[in-house]
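Example record for the data management plan.
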Amino acid sequence: MRLMALDIGDRRIGVALSDPGQTLARTLQVIRRRSLNADMSVIVALVTEHEVEKIIVGHPLQLDGTSGEQACSVEAFAAELREVLAIPVILWDEGFSTIRARQLMIEAGTKRKDRKSRIDAVAAAVILQDYLDSLKLERAIPWEETTL
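Corresponding structural encoding:
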């Protein structure tokens, strides 16, 4: 089964998908926001089409770890997703994912005009890869056996 990540913005939603082994994240698409119902319909269709078992939603916390205006908006969107989907919806600190995505695209030689149309999907892939990496770390190092 696959995992999906969403980078939710005011105008666009970036979507990324894991491989079935839940090792690697890849960009899927960018959804242009129209209305809550339309956005939910697109996401539900993608979840069904790709057999997604969990959604990871980028949570834009402030530097002090609190929820600002954008984080509250994302929290409300995630709550709506939980109402329409029968799978877990996880909020995950996105940790400057858009800045990291932009840097990755620059390093890959993506032209400026192409970056704007894909940045949200790349940010979603960054969020998802962070989540997948955390799962690998948990499996590789049992926390009760580690020492500092």
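Summary line stored alongside the record: The longest helix spans residues 112-140.
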